[in-house]
Design goal:
This protein is an alpha/beta fold and 340 residues long. It contains nine helices and 16 strands. Helix 3 packs across helix 4.
Amino acid sequence: MTMHDMMKAARLHAFGGPDVLIYEDAPRPDPQPGEVRVRVRAAGLNPPDWYLRDGYRALPPEWRPDAAFPLILGTDVSGVVEAVGDGVDRFRAGDAVYAMVRFPENVMTGSGAYAEYVTVPASQLARKPAGIDHVHAAAAPMSLLTAWQFLIELGHDEPNPFQPFRHAPVPLEGRTVLINGAGGGVGHLAVQLAKWRGARVITVASPKNAPLMRELGVDRFIDYRTTAVEESVRDADLVLDAVGGANMERFLRVIKPGGALFLVNPLGFAGQAAAAARGVHVSSTQVRSNGAQLAEAARLLDDGTLRIVIDSTFPLAEASRAHRRAESGAIQGKIVLTVA
């Protein structure tokens, strides 16, 4: 291989803590038919990145990845089209683009975003919003598509790994929506989409998120450290829980009969019977790559209807530091790697 065929990437040769991310030379990928090669300018971090880096240790052993090392983490990119494969006519070299790459199909192998170049199926790609820079565009895809597919439009007919029925968004205009984890990547975008659609929005987050929540125009802010949400809200039409973990069942008490509970991370939810008894519809879905939805959302990012909050940026060479930041737990918005 000549140097021309190589690139820099942050790769894993083993599962483990942040230090297993090694910045090194790697083969540059070539676009297959229907794909585009993107020169990456920025790559966003998301929870599946650190779950995979860790080898999905939280899952039962039979569900864990059987990985072929070395692998490159990351799904979310913003950059510039550098080459197009056969059959691609919607994009050409020089186009600024953003995407969530091959998710969830590459959830166990990595989608290759922590690198100078990545190949992306053209159907998963959209033109980058002109009004924002590559860092903000790279921060958007997974968080934005998650919020969009939960609240606005599912956008696909793939089987749902979490339930036997298709997830369906509910009407938001004039409704009361409570968002738990509103300072995080998915949460802060869900807040803005719900406001855009005319909902009354109550948010639950840590106190340092209060100023951001005011800026985003939320109708009520609850500091989860001082207030138990299940004691103080009774009138929600919809709860979107972007956190998961223990005791998601507590949200059933804040929802009106006939309302809905949407769980971004449903694993461990044990309230199906209680929900049925209360007439609350519980639903979840797995976010999927979707270029058309990113193109639609780009208009909202362009005109300022949606704003992406950046927690911090790190150069690609310091991906392990970025992962340590992610694990600190006190982040607001998104962490992004910049690629020189």
